[in-house]
Write a structure and sequence with these properties.
The chain is 61% helix and 7% strand. A 3-stranded antiparallel β-sheet has the order 1-2-3. Helix 3 packs antiparallel against helix 4 and helix 4 packs across helix 6.
């Protein structure tokens, strides 16, 4: 599905707006040359599978991306759970559960060990910092 509605230009995938007629929500929301993004993937999912529980979880993820992740992506500063809640309206636990539900229920090759990736990376970073200090 993605391949039939996208093209690549300088290693960036773009949505081909001339091929969107059968995708109601994506067609309504994508009016010019746009890079493929989570914003548009949400509409594509809605077109393909409807307004189901996974779609609702994806909306939570997208809202946190839009209100928290994107504004602070290039800043080196701590973002507290309180900040995430105040900016997005969601508790961190809600976001983590949304990710787990979307990944585990829709990508069958992903298991709980894959979800430990960031925890393992953070441990490696902390261990390296401790070692640098000693």
């Amino acid at each position: 599905t993605i391949k039939e509605i996208t093209y690549e230009d300088k290693n960036v995938k773009y949505i081909d707006i001339n091929k969107l007629s059968k995708y109601k929500y994506l067609n309504i929301n994508c009016k010019d040359k746009k890079p493929l993004s989570s914003y548009y993937m949400l509409f594509l999912y809605l077109d393909l599978f409807g307004d189901n529980q996974t779609y609702k979880q994806m909306q939570i993820i997208r809202e946190v991306e839009r209100t928290v992740r994107n504004p602070v992506a290039h800043e080196i500063k701590a973002v507290s759970e309180k900040t995430i809640k105040s900016l997005s309206g969601y508790y961190v636990e809600d976001v983590i559960n949304a990710f787990k539900d979307v990944l585990l229920n829709n990508f069958h090759k992903i298991n709980k060990n894959h979800l430990m990736f960031y925890k393992n990376i953070n441990k490696l970073i902390k261990d390296a910092i401790v070692q640098m200090k000693s």
